[in-house]
């Protein structure tokens, strides 16, 4: 298990991370961590490793792109002093190109996505013990689908930035693709973006595997 | 993995099972399975074993005792024709003795609890492939606490009935006791009864272990 | 223009037809016709052909399959004595196979779909002056997509039944395909099923063309 | 078709334009354009000319007079940089003279109406490619009715300003009068001001005709 | 003053009479008489003639035509045993012909209106001490307006029935016409049907004059 | 009739004047004048003297004492430039002495009441054409009741200030006393302070009599 | 202390007893006993005599008269098998004579009040161990006030019935009169009927004194 | 009785004191004092000692620790000029250590608790006539329970500070322990912290005994 006693683990991202978390602080009791993968990660860490006392904080915000993250980075990441930081961003950067194609202000194209993400990682690395970069994903099994193809391009950027920076890399799209071989995408999300609880379980498991969580621990 | 392709798995119980499930049918999309351990079991089954197509149904009902289960058994269990049936009941049978001691109509004492539970199991066994009996639990680490002691007595009844009938037995109290060694009960539940998401993770993991769920399955 | 003075035109279907119509009677003022293509058809008929006094009635019902239509056919169609009847059904018959694959009670497979639709048409034809059959559709441009392929199969059934019965045939999928060549499906519907106002305009225009509506009429 | 690829078309006006649009930005998905003629224009542009990618923005505001428009002109029109601007204003300027005759602060009399509207047009013309001026209207067929007569006077002002400035002119009152020959005004609006969906279809069609929209385009 | 000590005065009619009265019993404290002319009549009777102890009951029901009155006459009029009965009906009988002209089931034409009203009066007269017949009205000053002309026709029927039966006759249209000479109809009602408080004052005063109410009584 | 064409009549006071009026401006359509005597005065002025076009404004505010009036006098009275000003204040000045006797900050004793009221009248008189001073009242017929006796003392102050300043004087307590001879106070107000509609009719009639309103005017 | 271990004490009455109790069963946790004197009695019995385990049940119902009690006596009193029964009724029997004097159906006059109350007591006495009769009260210190005088008359009836039947008698009016010597009635209740918490403390203390509750018990 | 005529008694604390009090001022009618022990103390003071006219003010605030009290001390205590001040704080200082152990910012450990409480007492003593210090409590009868043991430690601090400063000391834990000998804690509070009405009665009685309240006073 890579997480150590007393560490603080902060998740940042968009609505998939947010998932109805409490505001302003996404931590503590009473569903403060939201209803998504962050809450599942926290629940299983507490259930299986109660002795570690990991403090999980959710700073996801619905509708965010990487540019929005940049705007709140100081307050919502650096000022929080996390030991671990997990970033999953890019869904809206891509989606707005496809659902509101006539409103270009909302689009974040690959170049800007990559440079902004890289800058955040470079700026943050000295201050956190460990970084986790999770790809954005699209619950569409056809890799020729236009939006899926674009999302894969953004996922490749995340991989590149992870490798450059030595961050842990979580390929959420690959994790979902394994399930999409068996289930049609509508089972996991009506809009191919916001997953059901099962989809969040896919995300949580992918994250937990990356940190060497041991399900069978006594 | 003991669950097989295309099987139907029905959970019945009280508010801990219910957890805001949809009515009348606690199955399908949009949070129909509620927010508790049943939803977690379903999510991880779908995430890890999508090829099995397990159908999970939640028939928990807040406030129920074993006597209430008996009253709705035909409609909510037998008429559903499940392949697997999981029962977790007893919290209210015990709790009412302690929170409203002057209202005896609400109390279900050990004799009645045992005979009713046994009758349900005997009546149902021929019709379902596999039974799972989960103990009720109380999130209090002091075994001399009056209500904890009573709850343990009811847990022992569940164990006895499970052994008699060859049902899978899930000792939820033991699973929680492992966590309570590290965390004070208020972390898992303000009222020592209704768990946080972390408590539901304890329950879901205990169930999944009992059916030989493999977290590391490819 | 095929519609004639004083005729009653009844639409039946699922949520795409329903679109928040009033209950029990989906006709009259104050948005009673809902927010979808039925309301658009009515609005343009009144705006361009006020002298005809066409009475439009909406009997769509969210979640319906062809089997649900059959159950309410006497009351909601025959008892209404429409001069024109337009049917658009099949979305849920197909969708449930893909979003809740483990709950087969909700699925309506092609054989049952075809025989039920045909029976309704045969039973109704003698009582209405003119029938319009609109295909169900799926806002996915990839014809190899599993659900799109199934939906096309249902569309072909509608075409077959229309030809047999001499009903007017409206190929809504073809109408959408023309738009999907230019716009990604997420622009028209986040879930690829429930269209935006623009999607309803596609449907209304396809219907109005089929009845020889003249946009440029003085 | 006068609108060209990639252009931005902004509508400004009162509650008839507003019609429950989103705030602050009346554009994008989820009904952001409101429920009136602006939404219909957008829907048919997207449905019939998807390849043009016209961006429609709604800046109508309930209760506005031409004086209110003037107060928010910089922010809501000039700062938006539209290629096309459509103005329909005057209803409240007139109506307040008739429904609250004792509160003169709310009245905008013809002189002020004309000079304010002209000033806005003169100021804006250099910055937008094309202007559309739509008359206000009153759904009363009796031209001797006091409020109808006043509204016609304001419509004449709009026509004059349109001619002076070379703007496209849309005579909404004339469009409605054609319908009012067949239907009593209560069919189109209980208060003779806020139209039903059919009335909005009249407005949308009048606008679309003015920009040479082709209903029968393949 | 024609009303005498301890008498019960019942008003029946449509939404103008109803005006948010309590259900099922429109009498007593806390606004039970609604916000319209019935409440005003009651208020001034109590304020000026407290010693008479007149009991006022409101049985108006929104949307009612004379046919609807007939359907509830036994329960809502005869079973109440009023000493005085005031009827004002006809608005909806006429309005539906104009606002939903294509839905003829909702129309009550003059013949049916007259015969139904006459039958109710004949049937009721032996059981109540005094009848008051109030005309329906339309807040439109142009007597050539189609709906106004029809409403006048219904008013004439009320007058005829009043004369035949010896009922007190209240010409509400005439009372409003006096005001409409000075004020545009929109001041009294946006939809020309449901009056403001000022319009209800016109109605209340017309009624009170008919029963010889003395404003200057000590 | 003392009110003249085109005059503005402003009422100020506490909750009895306020009565749910609109904010910030208590004038215009849609119940903006509230549900009390102000609305009744306005309604009957419009119904009987439509040719005068009297503009009625309600600036009552629930809970106000004369000290609260003083604090908002510039904005809510002087800046409004009324031709007529009607003041009814004092209920809360007295009531707080009786319902929360231990909280003296809320009490306004006779000296302060008199000096504050006189100062407001003196300051305002030069700016308004006509002043009306209405006494506060208490719906208790027993003049020996402690709170009634105090209220009478405040009423006497109002009378004195009216006489000094030549204002019209309306003795609301006397008007109510006439009714209380016949009806127990609970018929007019459960709390002896906030009247029913009948109580507001008493107030409106007392006001209208003071301005020589003619009920029988043609 | 007259109450003994394990006894059930049932209160019946009107809104003063009801005070927002739970339905259908006014007993148990979470404010089920309401917010009035019944809840206070229960709270102090539990706080001071926890070893007695007294079960308190609230069956008050807002608006009830003694006639309403009679209608639900079998179900709400006899079927409950209480050891102690406390009755406080009469407020509405009197109040309706004063607040809605023109609606005689709502009035219960002294003869009917006395005979009905006596019949209930006679019928019930054999089945309950101990009866408590509490007078109704009116928070008006002036004994010449009409409604107070009537209420005193009803209180005298309660006293008479208590003496005949050997019930414990609680003179709530006397208890309040002691307080009203110091405080004006508006401090205890705006409507002189529904007491503040302080008024309920007066009632609870009067009851507890009657059963020899010992405040200073260790 | 230690409280004297006309004194002001202010309570400050956390949610147990707050209990839904009005904001910003927790005093006056209509439940402004909340639903807890403060309201009970006020009610019985008014009921039994109406002639003293004690003014009770509630300044409790949910979630507060002693550090939060310090932050609002000037405004909420000193500026109020109370004659008596009662402090009950510490629950959250302790609870946060047990329910959210991983969020140390929320914890107030014994040293800081003691120094902060002492500083407040020292600073305030010269300005109030009499101080009452109430211990925090935990409704757990097992003194070896971790959180109970900590709470007892905080109670001991309160006792020490009370002795040093000559404040009246109220041992709420001891008062509850007497009840917990008879009743299981769940009867008094599901979360062992927020008491039922019975628990508030324990608190109110403990306070009233400390000020020599005489239940049997005439």
Automatic annotation (TrEMBL), chains A, B, C, D, E, F, G, H:
<protein>
    <submittedName>
        <fullName>SGNH/GDSL hydrolase family protein</fullName>
        <ecNumber>3.1.-.-</ecNumber>
    </submittedName>
</protein>
<feature type="domain" description="SGNH hydrolase-type esterase">
    <location>
        <begin position="11"/>
        <end position="202"/>
    </location>
</feature>
<dbReference type="InterPro" id="IPR036514">
    <property type="entry name" value="SGNH_hydro_sf"/>
</dbReference>
<dbReference type="InterPro" id="IPR051532">
    <property type="entry name" value="Ester_Hydrolysis_Enzymes"/>
</dbReference>
<dbReference type="GO" id="GO:0016787">
    <property type="term" value="F:hydrolase activity"/>
</dbReference>
<dbReference type="Pfam" id="PF13472">
    <property type="entry name" value="Lipase_GDSL_2"/>
</dbReference>
<keyword id="KW-0378">Hydrolase</keyword>
<dbReference type="InterPro" id="IPR013830">
    <property type="entry name" value="SGNH_hydro"/>
</dbReference>
